[in-house]
């Protein structure tokens, strides 16, 4: 989270050329015209022995499954728990998923197992290897998948079907993005960058990444003395129905209704919201429709103008497709934690198709401090290409009681453990750096 906060403060992005190793893995020569994107390094790296897997079994798994295993462990550790604390528990696993392309790169002489490619294995594999015994589900609603997954995970907790929930999503591009030919109807930016709500927006940039969150009912988290990053107050999911101009076109009316439903479910008035983490694809059609819907929904409940900052993490890390909603959620968590209302990267001038006059939303070209005189609240949106929309409302974490530091410069013993000497040294190094 600290590194994400630094990236957001810098108002820069992680977009760059496709690494040469990724070109080779995809069988693409130096002459291939590949679009720039925000790609991860070494998506092939995976400590299979940690999870008790053979090298061959790990190789036959979609890298997205491997990454979800790693991120789930990191989420549990970040919460201050060992993995053993969740073994055998009623922990729901709900991940957003999308199209997989790993099979296209696989060695025909050693093809992946069916379970290595099944989207359902993303949740099932985590539940199996970590012995989590709640529901294990994958959700595919295209670009809104991971935010819908978080909403579903919250429902599992509020209904009493689970005591914990692991949720989120990842997106890896096994096949590097190819530059769209001139004159095509691609929504991908020729330059690879999402300039959300900006006059210079020319499409969405692509990216890789993911996020996994560990959820728990607030009363139990407070009782157990957990470190809480933020609180999900509530949310909503709906569909465009037949209200858009086409199956893959967004609907302002549906998005407006979604926001009103989410605010009712969360029990909040929109005048208490200081930040909207938008879907913000940077497309000429999507951004104006999203802004129109936000303005209309806020306008139904308040006459205040220009008080709620609007931005999108896609301007920093690109569009993560099925993992985009989870990425936006984590950005909102960082904003609540840091007391910063982050501006979108590259934003200089509003898209002329946005009717900003009289809107409660404000587009800013500079990050600003977030007043702590009232409880900070933020909304997060994600809209799927096939019409499924999601919005969640977050609130800053409750204040934690201050624990007095031990008196005097006494040495403290910090026991560490790992499943190997190299891992132990890395663990100690991370702790020392912290």
Automatic annotation (TrEMBL):
SMART domains: PKS_KS. It holds the Pfam family ketoacyl-synt. Keywords: Phosphopantetheine, Phosphoprotein. The keyword Transmembrane helix does not apply. Residues 1-396 form the Ketosynthase family 3 (KS3) domain. GO terms for cellular component: cytoplasm; plasma membrane. PROSITE patterns: KS3_2. It comes from the Bacteria. The keyword Phosphoprotein applies. PANTHER family: FATTY ACID SYNTHASE, SI:DKEY-61P9.11. This is Polyketide synthase. It comes from Streptomyces halstedii.
